[in-house]
Design goal:
Elements lengths: L2 H10 L2 H31 L7 H8 L1 H18 L2 H14 L4 H4 L11 E7 L7 H10 L4 E5 L3 H6 L3 H5 L2 E5 L8 E5 L3 E8 L6 E9 L2 E9 L5 H25 L5 E6 L7 H10 L13 E2 L7 E2 L2 E5 L4 E7 L10 E6 L1
Parallel strand pairs: 1-2, 7-8
Antiparallel strand pairs: 1-13, 2-4, 3-4, 5-6, 6-7, 8-11, 9-10, 12-13
Helix pairs in contact: 2-4, 2-5, 4-5, 10-11
Amino acid sequence: MNPDEILQHESLNSPASSEFVRVLMRRLSTLLSVATVALAIVSLATLAARHHWLTDICANLRVQWVIGLLAVACGSVVTKSWRLFSVQIMLLIFHAPWFAVVLFPDETPTGPPQMTFATANVLTANRRYDEIEAQLLASNADVVAVLELSTPLRDHLQGRFAEQYPYSRESPQNGGNFGIGLYSRVPFQSAEIDYFNDARIASVIARVNLQDSELVIIATHTRPPVGAGGFAHRNRHLRMLADRVQEFRKAEPDVPVVVMGDLNLTPWSPVFADFAERAGLAPSRGRELTPTWYRFPLFPFGLVLDHVLATPDLTRVDYQVGSDMGSDHRIVTTGWKF
């Protein structure tokens, strides 16, 4: 060992270096403790998601809390903070049941789907009409819901898109974010604009015949649950929507119902489970974690807000999330079989 190597070895093992490492580890442990307490608070807050908009947001951010817990657990291993590590593991176990449908999906039928549905929240202010149209056509869906539909986009879709989807029911909106349109390759038996909870927020309820079977399709868009008013508004919308699904089912038990759109709700909130149960919609076993909405274009900054759900008559066999088309949302395309 040459003199320079000897000096470097001695400096690394000097009392000053050892003290620096100890101080660094103590500060890291303190930081990990604070982060774990914060993650424990927001995790336990999800238990009250049905009762307050802030705790509902905590539940919708469940994926983010799990990512944070995995990160601090790795830090606890580095610092050998085993007591803290055990708390982090317990919190991960607390969240685990919500992801069982992702980790242990049901077996799905093989082969191509018998029918395909797509929903796309395109953002009212988005002017990238050619990209929107291209993704709508690429979905190759039988029925497509377009949310935040503006009058200029509606007019743009009267060309090449209308050749593939000649049947439509539209309620565009330029001054807000709740325009909507439903487009189909096959004729509607009926298609009506309807409202859940608010005359300013239109939904489309249609009947179509696919594969020699009649279906009811409901395209809808709820208000974001921000603030007490928005939280209550969205929840009333979902309750009324669920009751409408049940009305259809009681009147015609053999007619499947499909609900699609931006529900402003992730599968990780108990409010979602309550809605699906009340409506009689089958849980989507094997749901993807891929976000359909992004605050920033990275996985930790996204949420699964856009959904295509159906009554148990139908089984989902395919699920795809599209790429950026100028909106904060992505198109969701799903394939189904009877």
